[in-house]
Model the fold of this input.
Amino acid sequence: MQILLKFLESTGFANLEIGNLIMIVVGIIFITLAITKDYEPLLLVPIGMGVIVGNIPTMDNVALSVYSEAHIAVENGQVLLEDGHVKWNAGSVLSLLYMGVKMGVYPPLIFLGIGAMTDFSTMLSNPKLVLLGAAAQIGVFLTILGALFLGFNAQEAGAIGIIGGADGPTSIFLSSQLAPKLLGPIAIAAYSYMALVPVIQPPIMKLLTTRKERLIRMAPPRVVSKREKMIFPVAAFLICAMIAPASLVLIGMLFFGNLLKESCVTDRLANTARTAFIDIVTILLGFCVGASTNASEFLTKQSLLIFGLGALSFCVATAGGVLFAKFMNLFLKEKINPLIGAAGVSAVPDSARVVQMVGQAEDPHNSLLMHAMAPNVAGVIGSAIAAGVLWSVLAT
Amino acid sequence: MGVQNIIDNQGVSLVITGMTIVFLALVMVSILIALLPKILAVLLPPESAEPAHGHPAHGHPAHGHSAHGHSARTRESSDEALVAAIGVALHRRLNRK
Done:
């Protein structure tokens, strides 16, 4: 009877708190949105399931959660021995997988896959559009001011600001380096807003442009030679890494992946990087991030502030890109459609798709997707550089 | 908290410096992209009509007299011969059955 009572005390039902229940509902909402609305299903399904797993109450004496880390038993500064061996605890399986998030291992690996997927042709054919990817990073830096205003310290503010880069792996990477305690809320906010790009961006884009501007047609991109595509990743990496060496890990892997794709002699490696490899890392990253959102760690006032600032940073980044495109039009003979400025936030390729959708709502025959991909991939580079700058300036 | 926290943490300087560095890096990438075709045109002979792995480079005329053009044509003809040989072998094997 005692054994049965002890077991009943250890069940999830006995230990479930209201916070856990709320988070389990959040996880179910993520999965539902992914399945019914097709919002970033490759991310929201692993994250949603991770949220559910991470909020099942666990027993103290069994290592199950991502926070049950491996440790050596120490007492009064002395390592404890057991039968002549160091007494230690291996930690939970989830904590081992979560090490990849905590130590910033997964994000560069994802960047490798993104590089192997990305075709820089549209950016190479129209170099001025690269500037839109830089302009959208204003969302990152203005959000830092907002976070400082709300009382976060400089490191936390930097990690929160990068949500405006609309780049999940970059957000995770930077927060793991600058503010590990905020990693869960920042990662969830970044991925949630990335999934909500089709909802957040269109109203801002319409608000900041006239119908005449939305109807602008752009000249088709020029054909880019194979040599340009091969040389670009190495040359661009050298420029970016020399200017912001702290972005080396992310930028290096991005351009390495792209070199695998464009070199034409490593097709097998490129194919692996852009298929099975990135899928495996995405599963591990998404699931672990979700599992780290235990209610006791996640449901705090800080998390709510982070969500608010994240939404603000997305809006500012979108507005920054659109307004800078309009500014560029003051000097350009061949006008650019300012809608493509919104693709400067790096959510690839969703924000480019949104540009296409908004553009075609005005003129069904105006295809902006190819043009929008240029600021979109420039935004990936821009947000990685921004992360590098913040890391190098704010690292303690 | 408040404006004092922004001042204490040199928030405005951070914003200006950060945006400047991001712009500087991407402006340099933009200049690189703009100059790349011109540099390549000066330093290297024009690309063949058929770049590696058979993706045709549209907009780049074939240079039949160049060594690249010759090797591309040779590879193309040997590919055709290979396809023809495989076709004949398959045809014979199927007929035997």
User: Anything to note?
Assistant: Chain A touches chain B through 47 residues (CB under 8 Å). Chain A has a mean pLDDT of 91.
